[in-house]
Backbone:
């Protein structure tokens, strides 16, 4: 059943011509008529069906304007590095005992970081961490000796860019309460990351076939991709 609030929103917006991010953000915010601070999200469909291979993107981007989310970060490391991890802002820090808790299903964190030497032990928990998207990955910067940087990045605002089997990517650029320039900076950072991914993969034609922008409880608009100044 469609709510009275939703019925008041513009109709058939996805049929309108694509516009740049700077023009659409005020419109998206105007449609944020709920009482909570809605997320501003972009949805992309990439050209992942190539003749020789299928494009799979999985990377992270540090959002300069922040994410607006409080992320609970856990770290698995040697006991000698526990104090450094705690001082860097980790919410949970542990070693073998913590790995055992994770094995038993005690998962009360949104991000897991570990040192390379501990990854050997954590890799055995693929069935537990994998489905939740929590398995640390060197490519994503979550398997590292530089715990301070990894923890700071995760806490300050970091988004994962990952396509599903149909080539769809969903990523948030912030909250309604963010200033427009912060949302645009985050969007530009995502565009830069996608450009790098295109260079790293052999892609014929454009990497992104279509893009839309919406809010958590709003309606979507076609998005014209390209960095905004």
Residues:
């Amino acid at each position: 059943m469609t709510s009275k609030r939703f019925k008041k929103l513009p109709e058939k917006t996805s049929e309108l011509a694509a516009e740049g991010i700077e023009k659409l953000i005020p419109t998206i915010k105007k449609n944020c008529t709920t009482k909570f601070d809605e997320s501003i999200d972009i949805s992309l469909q990439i050209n992942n069906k190539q003749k020789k291979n299928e494009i799979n993107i999985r990377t992270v981007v540090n959002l300069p304007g922040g994410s607006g989310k409080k992320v609970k970060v856990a770290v698995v490391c040697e006991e000698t590095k526990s104090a450094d991890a705690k001082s860097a802002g980790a919410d949970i820090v542990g070693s073998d005992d913590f790995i055992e808790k994770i094995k038993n299903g005690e998962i009360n964190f949104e991000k897991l970081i570990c040192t390379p030497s501990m990854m050997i032990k954590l890799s055995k928990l693929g069935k537990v961490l994998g489905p939740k998207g929590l398995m640390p990955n060197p490519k994503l910067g979550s398997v590292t000796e530089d715990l301070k940087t990894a923890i700071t990045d995760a806490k300050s605002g970091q988004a994962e860019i990952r396509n599903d089997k149909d080539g769809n990517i969903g990523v948030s650029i912030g909250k309604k309460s963010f200033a427009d320039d912060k949302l645009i900076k985050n969007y530009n950072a995502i565009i830069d990351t996608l450009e790098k991914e295109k260079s790293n993969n052999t892609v014929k034609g454009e990497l992104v076939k279509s893009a839309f922008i919406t809010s958590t409880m709003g309606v979507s608009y076609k998005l014209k991709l390209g960095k905004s100044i």
User: Anything to note?
Assistant: Helices lie at 4-7, 21-30, 82-87, 96-103, 116-122, 126-129, 147-156, 180-200. The chain has eight helices and nine strands.
